[in-house]
Automatic annotation (TrEMBL):
Belongs to the methyltransferase superfamily. It is found in: Endomembrane system; Membrane. This is Putative methyltransferase PMT26. Its main location: membrane. GO terms for cellular component: endosome; membrane; trans-Golgi network. Residues 1-20, 65-270 are annotated as: Disordered. It is a single-pass membrane protein; Single-pass type II membrane protein.
Length: 798
């Protein structure tokens, strides 16, 4: 050996036999000792449980992962919703910056995982659980103890990581026994420089350094395993720790993306123009030519009813050539831009009745109608003089105008503090409802055909029909019985038509039939009078307040509806020729008239009490009051002053998910009207809204709304979209929002943070301007403005 040779050379003399023997003996002993030492050191690798230290390796218990709860929407009947909703985020002193949900979850997940890496040395004491984890959990808990900082998709990622970690924890040795963490670490550190598994070591060190923890390096006297053992370690003993593998991360991300695409919530959006023959006036559920052609009959105006496409459209309706920002109220009641509603048929057909006239760049509305050529105000005052008890703007606050034409009657009712729900079909009277909405007068496209109108029972203080062309007397009075369902007990029906004052055979026949029908319905004819200026006549009937007359009828015709017939059921419910019994008992809705306007706006309805549970989980009367106070605070401190909205340019407003009508009530002093929508899958609070002297209707937002394009200045949605994405595609709903909203109109959304982010992406893809975005925890607020020329640009690109 080299050592022996060195000893011999140091002597520099010939060796004797004894010295040679001693030298040989010494060499043999030394070699034996080296072999024994090498065997002992290598045996520690082959038998890892036999270590020289008396201390056993410590197996580090990983902290239980924080389970962030899925974000919760404002579900009906959930007390948690009320506590979030009534907590006005606009009152907070700290402004929370916008969250980027696409990046933040990955960062949170990475931080969470790196904190869980076990210590390197088995001899070291088990470290304390990272404090950062606890602080992170506290940060996401709201006042109710609910985790709000993570969205549903992040939760799914965490679940995937946990399952991956569980698999990685189950590392076994060559005998099939589970190894302690400390020994797995030692095995990793004992690999030779030529071992392929050694390449993973710098990656682990680099990741731990990113988290502020220092990786322990291998000792200089460590003996590395041989090739066979290193192969075993690479395949079965490689430790991932708390870090997910790239394969797991990639698999989870692809699954999330596939799930998002299948639900129609892509992060990039492609828009195109609608190709309907209705062009700029396209209403998807009323212009479905394919469905209309398949109708067996149109006898009951089935072709004017709603026939929605099976797949809600995601296309954009183009702007008319030369479209301008609408004229502001109240000037808009008298004139609108011709370029915005470029239709002249109605002016030619009804111009002599002062409906509408064309004058240069404008369409003029003299305020007349078929029955009030000399102006609607005179006609309205004639009704008041004939029947003082009708008390416009006090006793009679919310009325229905059937067959409204261009809605001049409803437009001038604002001067008497009366809110009028006007409707007319989309028929040969070209764009009559569109004229009304362009003027700033509430109206919808609807027809009295085969289905109930989308309103609850017993809510209208009065119903008006002036030459509305509805055959009330036919088929058992089915259509008039629908008005009976809608009319409040003690309410009035005002009928102004030729059968009232003309003596032509046809008119006399209709009058006689109507007289018989109304008498059998227990309607009382209060007055029949003439308007000498307009040379027309009218009759006013009153619905009874109780069931006494029904019980005294000699014939059950029209019959009373079955007890099982829900009078408030109104969404796609077929009409029936029957009458519902009137409410009985002092605490039942409809048993007495509401408070006079405006007191009824703030007054809790008499039929709401503490024994009932409100939408937000409180006693119903407290729920109502809390909602009212909440929206007063939000509107005054945020919407009117904090968003930069010029409310002088806002007239037509829609609350896409009204509950008690608090948002609309808070806008009472503004020169606006609010269409309150109660979605069909929400608690039926629409009767409460009417009781307050406001109005609205039922609707399913998975379908298009029965209005023309570009008819609303502001849309408001409180926790609507997060609910809708469970039933329908948000892209189709947002396309409907784009259709309904006027250019430069505003959309205000309050919803979960992840929903806000998706909707903001959609708005940006349409080149809308983001006016305001605000998030706190898992709640967010977004205000966007629709682009004026977006449709023109889409048209040019296609």
């Amino acid at each position: 050996m080299a050592f022996g040779r060195g000893s011999k050379m140091d002597g520099r003399r010939p060796s004797s036999s004894s010295s040679s023997f001693c030298t040989t003996t010494t060499v043999v002993v030394f070699v034996a000792l080296c072999l024994v030492g090498a065997w002992m050191m290598t045996s520690s690798t082959v038998f890892p449980l036999e270590v020289s230290s008396n201390k056993k390796p410590v197996v580090k218990q990983q902290p239980a992962p924080v389970n962030f709860g899925a974000s919760e929407g404002a579900a009906s009947g959930n007390a948690g919703e009320g506590s979030r909703k009534f907590e006005d985020t606009d009152n907070n002193d700290t402004t929370v910056p916008e969250l980027n949900n696409k990046e933040a979850p990955e960062e949170e997940k990475f931080t969470e995982n790196t904190m869980e890496k076990p210590e390197e040395k088995p001899e070291e004491k088990e470290p304390e659980p990272p404090k950062e984890r606890e602080e992170t959990k506290d940060m996401f808990d709201d006042a109710n103890g609910k985790s709000e900082g993570r969205s549903d998709d992040v939760k799914n990622d965490d679940d995937g990581d946990k399952s991956e970690e569980k698999k990685d924890d189950e590392i076994t040795n060559e005998n099939g026994d589970e190894k302690p963490d400390g020994e797995k670490k030692d095995d990793q550190e004992e690999k030779s420089e030529g071992d392929a598994t050694q390449e993973e070591q710098p990656q682990i060190e680099e990741k731990m350094e990113e988290n502020g923890e220092k990786e322990q390096t291998s000792n200089s006297n460590e003996v590395f395993p041989d090739g066979a053992q290193s192969e075993l370690l690479k395949e079965s003993n490689t430790q991932n720790g708390s870090f997910p593998t790239q394969a797991a991360e990639s698999k989870n991300e692809k699954e999330v993306q596939a799930s998002s695409k299948s639900s129609g919530d892509e992060t990039s959006y492609s828009w195109k123009l609608c190709s309907s023959s209705a062009s700029t006036d396209y209403i998807p559920c009323l212009d479905n030519e394919k469905a209309i052609k398949k109708l067996r009959t149109t006898k009951h105006y089935e072709h004017r009813e709603r026939h929605c496409p099976e797949e809600p459209p995601t296309c954009l309706v183009p702007l008319p050539e030369g479209y301008k920002r609408p004229i502001e109220w109240p000037k808009s009641r008298d004139k609108v831009w011709y370029s915005n509603v470029p239709h002249t048929k109605l002016a030619e057909y009804k111009g002599h009745q002062n409906w509408v006239k064309v004058s240069g760049d404008y369409l003029l509305f003299p305020g007349g109608g078929t029955q009030f050529k000399n102006g609607a105000l005179h006609y309205i005052d004639t009704i008041q003089q004939a029947l003082p008890d009708i008390a416009w703007g006090k006793r009679s606050r919310v009325i229905l105008d059937v067959g409204c034409g261009v809605a001049s009657f409803g437009g001038y009712m604002f001067d008497r503090d009366v809110l009028t729900m006007s409707f007319a079909p989309k028929d040969e009277h070209e764009a009559q409802v569109q004229f009304a909405l362009e003027r700033g007068i509430p109206a919808i496209s609807a027809v009295m055909g085969t289905k109930r109108l989308p309103y609850p029972s017993s809510v209208f203080d009065a119903i008006h029909c002036a030459r509305c062309r509805v055959p009330w007397h036919i088929e058992g009075g089915m259509l008039l019985l629908e008005l009976n369902r809608l009319l409040r007990p003690g309410g009035y029906f005002i009928w102004s038509a030729t059968p009232v004052y003309q003596k032509l055979p046809e008119d006399v026949e209709i009058w006689n039939a109507m007289s018989t029908l109304t008498k059998s319905m227990c309607w009382k004819m209060v007055i029949k009078t003439k308007d000498k200026l307009n040379q027309v006549g009218m009759v006013i009937y009153q619905k009874p307040m109780d069931n006494n007359c029904y019980e005294k009828r000699s014939e059950n015709n029209p019959p009373l509806c079955k007890e099982s017939d829900a009078a408030d059921a109104a969404w796609n419910v077929p009409l029936e020729a029957c009458m519902h019994k009137l409410p009985v008992g002092p605490t039942v809705r409809g048993a007495k008239w509401p408070e006079s306007w405006p007191q009824r706006l703030e007054k809790t309805p008499f039929w709401i009490n503490g024994s009932q549970v409100g939408v937000y989980g409180k006693p119903a009367n407290e729920d109502f009051e809390a909602d009212n106070a909440h929206w007063k605070r939000v509107v005054s401190k945020s919407y009117l002053n904090g968003m930069g909205i010029d409310w002088s340019k806002v007239r037509n407003v829609m609350d896409m998910r009204a509950v008690y009508g608090g948002f609309a009530a808070a806008l009472k002093d503004q020169k606006v009207w609010v269409m309150n929508i109660v979605p069909i899958d929400s608690p039926d609070t629409l009767p409460i809204i009417y009781e307050r002297g406001l109005f609205g209707m039922y609707h399913d937002w998975c379908e298009s709304f029965s209005t023309y394009p570009r008819t609303y200045d502001l849309l408001h949605a409180d926790h609507l979209f997060s609910k809708l994405k469970k039933r329908c595609k948000l892209m189709a709903v947002f396309a409907e929002v784009d259709r309904v909203l006027r250019p430069q109109g505003k959309l205000i959304i309050r919803d979960t943070a992840d929903t806000i982010n998706k909707l903001e992406s959609m708005a940006k893809s349409l080149q809308w301007e983001v006016r305001m975005t605000y998030t706190k925890g898992n709640e967010g607020l977004l205000c966007v403005e629709k682009s004026m020329w977006r449709a023109k640009e889409v048209e040019a690109s296609t």
